[in-house]
């Protein structure tokens, strides 16, 4: 093909844009770096300090073993993430693929956390191998879960979200059980580039060099993946082998980054996406420019967090998450949606009403409540409280039980509403971002003021939930609130909530213990006022929801059938989303954002026979309440005298449940 003047002009234009994309952040970062160096050490001492072994001036020590290694590792880690993201997006044909969204980082993190706390001998040969094993295992789990939908972009992202949430819950539990190490573990997990010597940088550089060579050796077969698998195979390549090789290089790179500096979120998403927008059309161009862009972006981010006026330094991995969440919103319209058969599945099971199961459910809930109030564990072992002892125990136990019961019932009902509204049995308030939005509003309140009380927290949470709903509606407007857009918008909102919570945890706020307990889903500080607020909200919700039963019976039939039966879908969905926001906000306030009750309870209700909308409504409420009350009781008893937060324990059960559900639906 002839290289015309138009092609030449277009190439030169894209070249200037790519150079600007890399150069502008690099120039800003260089300015901040030089300014920081001058504040640390006079310029005439820079070269001299490089060869000094006996440091007479402490500033030389900081320059040689803290400042320069940190600069080096920020460049190396950014380049590695840029290359890893490019490989993953090419291999999976997914513009949202990167180590955070497909679960690799979460698996590597939890593996290193377990090894550090309980098997430090496994780190003797290097943290890299432990991180690689954890990252590879979690990635394989994500791919296995997404296999049934042909590794579609949405299926991979949702599978990665579930695996990441499960690993995050496990990490949070480990930190709760090892509070003496929790601050150090948290800072590391959040992606801190602080260095103490140059050993990490020198160990990381050969891995990056080897991975880069391997990636460019795979360039030709990776380029052929732009074709269909049949087309690539006809040209002499094996697409499965190529994908496996590319995934191996990418997972290795991302695991090395986790081992070196912790989780750096979304640089691997941003760098390839930005260079593509700047004009890097071919894979070769992206493989060259994305590592450069990743290095400059992380370098600039690291310099910015060091000059921000904050009581303590924000980890770089947290700062990059603020970049990733808006970028997810920008990239969502570029994703192709795929037909969802979930609605047909939901409508095909509605044969029995389930009213016969309601009375046994109420009896079971009463027994669980009695056990939670009466049965306990003390210094002398297990104990059943007598009537006289209950007078002293009820003021302590009753608020916790009432809060757990009410929050569980609300989440169960809202989860049932979400699943029927979207026709997607994987929908839940935790997954769709409503819980994340509510927690985000509460976290912003913590930042804005020191005078925080329950009414103000409720208002802030409600505003956050409504903003989340507005983003969901805006994102899905062109696709009539398509299921895929709803779920992926939830990923973005959850990302922002996690980033803000990380900022708060790194801030040194004196309310940190309260915040950690709340984020974990604890009922430790439940009061009678909390119990009353939660109980009233749950009662009002159960009174209003039967008025929406006709909508909830029709919506799972699909969009065409719903419109044919006279439903105004946009209006109905907005009303239901708003109706879901208030109880979700209250439940998030009293039990925290970590929980899969909204997912589990409706499924369990259907499996037990509550298959019509109205019986499933009450069945989901009963089961949701039982799940959280049981989790709260088990959290108090399992490691007595210490406690496990109820929401965290429920999430640890709910995450694997979600994965089992996806595995069963993979074909």
Q: What is the secondary structure topology, with strand pairs?
A:
Layout: H1 5-40, H2 46-50, H3 58-92, H4 104-118, H5 127-146, H6 153-177, H7 179-189, H8 199-217, H9 219-224, H10 229-234, H11 239-261, H12 267-277, H13 283-307, H14 316-331, H15 342-348, H16 358-374, E1 375-378, E2 381-384, H17 387-422, H18 434-448, H19 454-475, H20 483-506, H21 512-519, H22 528-544, H23 549-554, H24 559-564, H25 569-591, H26 597-607, H27 613-637, H28 646-664
Antiparallel strand pairs: 1-2
Helix pairs in contact: 1-13, 3-8, 3-11, 3-12, 3-13, 4-5, 4-6, 4-11, 5-6, 5-11, 6-7, 6-20, 6-28, 8-11, 12-13, 12-14, 14-20, 16-17, 16-27, 17-22, 17-25, 17-26, 17-27, 18-19, 18-20, 18-25, 19-20, 19-25, 22-25, 26-27, 27-28
Strand order of the largest sheet: 1-2
Mean pLDDT: 78
| CATH architecture identity of the largest domain | Orthogonal Bundle
Q: Tell me, what's the shape?
A: globular
Number of strands: 2
Oligomer: single chain
Span between N and C termini? 44 Å
CATH superfamily of the largest domain: ABC transporter involved in vitamin B12 uptake, BtuC
- Helix-strand pattern: HHHHHHHHHHHHHHHHEEHHHHHHHHHHHH
Number of helices: 28
- Fold-level CATH name of the largest domain: ABC transporter involved in vitamin B12 uptake, BtuC
Strand content range: under 5%
Q: How many structural domains in the coordinates? A: 2
**Spans of 5+ residues with little confidence (pLDDT < 50)?**
336-351
User: Helical content, roughly?
Assistant: over 70%
Largest sheet: 2 strands, antiparallel
The assigned structural class equals mainly alpha
Give me the Rg, rounded. 26 Å
The CATH class assignment of the largest domain is Mainly Alpha
């Amino acid at each position: 093909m002839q290289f015309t003047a138009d092609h030449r002009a277009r190439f030169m234009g894209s070249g200037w844009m790519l150079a600007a994309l890399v150069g502008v952040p690099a120039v800003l970062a260089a300015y901040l770096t030089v300014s920081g160096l001058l504040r640390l050490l006079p310029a005439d001492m820079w070269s001299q300090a490089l060869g000094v072994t006996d440091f007479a001036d402490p500033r030389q020590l900081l320059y040689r073993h803290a400042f320069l290694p940190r600069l080096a590792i920020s460049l190396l880690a950014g380049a590695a993430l840029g290359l890893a993201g490019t490989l993953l997006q090419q291999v999976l044909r997914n513009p949202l693929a990167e180590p955070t969204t497909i679960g690799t980082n979460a698996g590597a993190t939890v593996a290193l956390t377990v090894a550090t706390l309980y098997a430090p001998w496994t780190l003797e040969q290097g943290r890299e191998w432990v991180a690689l094993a954890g990252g590879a295992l979690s990635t394989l789990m994500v791919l296995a879960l997404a296999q049934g939908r042909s590794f579609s972009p949405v299926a991979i992202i949702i599978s990665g979200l579930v695996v990441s949430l499960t690993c995050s819950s496990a990490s949070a539990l480990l930190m709760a059980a090892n509070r003496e190490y929790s601050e150090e573990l948290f800072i590391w997990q959040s992606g801190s580039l602080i260095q103490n010597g140059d050993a990490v940088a020198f160990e990381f550089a050969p891995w990056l060099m080897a991975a880069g060579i391997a990636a460019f050796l795979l360039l030709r077969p990776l380029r052929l993946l732009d074709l269909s698998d049949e087309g690539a195979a006809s040209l002499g390549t094996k697409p499965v082998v190529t994908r496996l090789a590319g995934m191996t290089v990418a997972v290795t790179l991302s695991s090395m980054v986790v081992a070196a500096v912790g989780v750096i979120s979304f640089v691997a998403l941003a760098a390839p996406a930005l260079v593509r927008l700047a004009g890097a059309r071919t894979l070769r161009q992206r493989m060259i420019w994305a590592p450069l862009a990743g290095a400059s972006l992380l370098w600039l981010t690291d310099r910015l967090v060091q000059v921000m006026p904050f009581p303590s330094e924000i980890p770089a991995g947290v700062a990059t998450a603020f970049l990733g969440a808006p970028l997810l919103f920008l990239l969502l319209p570029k994703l192709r949606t795929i037909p969802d058969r979930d609605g047909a599945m939901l409508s095909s099971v509605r044969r029995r009403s389930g009213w016969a199961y309601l009375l046994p459910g109420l009896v079971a809930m009463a027994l669980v409540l009695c056990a939670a109030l009466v049965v306990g564990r003390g210094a002398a072992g297990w104990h059943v409280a007598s009537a006289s002892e209950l007078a002293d125990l009820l003021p302590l136990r009753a608020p916790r039980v009432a809060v757990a019961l009410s929050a569980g019932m609300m989440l169960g009902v809202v989860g049932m509403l979400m699943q029927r509204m979207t026709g997607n049995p994987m929908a839940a308030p935790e997954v769709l971002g409503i819980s994340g939005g509510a927690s985000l509003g509460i976290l912003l309140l913590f930042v804005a003021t020191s005078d925080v009380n329950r009414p103000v927290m409720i208002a802030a949470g409600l505003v956050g939930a409504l903003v989340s709903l507005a983003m969901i509606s805006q994102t899905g407007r062109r696709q009539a609130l398509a299921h895929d857009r709803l779920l992926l918008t939830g990923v973005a909102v959850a990302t922002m909530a996690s980033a803000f919570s990380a900022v708060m945890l790194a801030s040194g706020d004196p309310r940190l213990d309260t915040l950690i307990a709340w984020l974990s889903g604890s009922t430790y500080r439940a009061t009678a006022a909390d119990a009353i607020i939660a109980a009233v909200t749950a009662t009002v919700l159960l009174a209003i929801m039967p008025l929406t039963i006709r909508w909830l019976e029709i919506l799972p039939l699909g969009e065409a059938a719903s419109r044919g039966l006279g439903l105004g879908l946009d209006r109905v969905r907005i009303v239901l989303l708003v109706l879901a926001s208030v109880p979700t906000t209250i439940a998030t306030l009293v039990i925290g954002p970590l929980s899969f009750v909204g997912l589990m309870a409706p499924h369990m209700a259907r499996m037990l026979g509550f298959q019509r909308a109205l019986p499933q409504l009450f069945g989901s409420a009963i089961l949701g309440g039982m799940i959280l009350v049981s989790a709260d009781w088990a959290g108090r008893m399992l490691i007595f005298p210490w406690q496990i937060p109820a929401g965290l324990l429920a999430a640890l059960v709910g995450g694997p449940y979600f994965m089992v559900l996806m595995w069963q639906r993979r074909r």
